[in-house]
Amino acid sequence: MPATGSVSSVITAARFIINIDGIETSFSELSGINSEVEPAEYISVDANGNVLHTKQFGKTKPPMVVLKRGVDNSAQMWTWHQLALEGAPSARKSATLKLQDAAGTTFQTYLLEAAWLSKLEIGGLRAGDSAVVVETVQIVCDRIEMQPS
């Protein structure tokens, strides 16, 4: 949490770089980094016989990252997803996700522990259209850790 009286600046990112096994792939859109703890209702009775309803920490959901980019000739994401489809233990990898500005300066880095590519979607195809074909990937991991800047 920022110190009292400090001013934080708004983050604007130009690209998102994922590094897996030393190979970097650039994405143009970060749809989200999701980390969630479900609230669980807890009902108890205090010493005076009053019924207390509280919310407690419940089940955690695996963190997810959703990224999008224009399709190019790189097969890195496809190959990584194939490992998950095969159930290969090597599909779980440590990865870093860097948020960069237009000058290529990294201003935030996330460590994705035991990450694997759970979903790969290629869309935006229409015959005769000149729009960019988009690759969307959903990465699930055991833990996301924000690295100090």
Instruction: Give the overall average pLDDT.
Output: 88
Shape assignment: extended
Number of helices: 1
Order of helices and strands: EEEEHEEEE
Helix content: under 10%
CATH superfamily: Hcp1-like
Largest sheet: 8 strands, antiparallel
> What is the beta-strand fraction?
over 45%
- Unreliable sequence segments: none
Total domain modules: 1
- The CATH topology is Pnp Oxidase, Chain A
Distance between the termini: 14 Å
User: From the alpha-carbon coordinates, what is the Rg to the nearest angstrom?
Assistant: 20 Å
Number of strands: 8
> What is the level-2 CATH architecture name?
Roll
Structural class: mainly beta
Q: State the name of the first-level CATH class.
A: Mainly Beta
Structural write-up:
β1 and β2 (23-27) form a beta hairpin. The radius of gyration is 20 Å and the shape is extended. Strands 1, 2, 3, 4, 5, 6, 7 and 8 form an 8-stranded antiparallel beta sheet that branches. The protein has a single domain (15-147), classed as Pnp Oxidase, Chain A, CATH 2.30.110.20. It contains 1 helix and 8 strands, in the order ββββαββββ. The protein has one helix spanning 76-85, and strands at 15-20, 23-27, 29-45, 51-70, 93-100, 106-123, 134-140, 143-147. It is mainly beta and 149 residues long. The mean pLDDT is 88. The two termini are 14 Å apart.
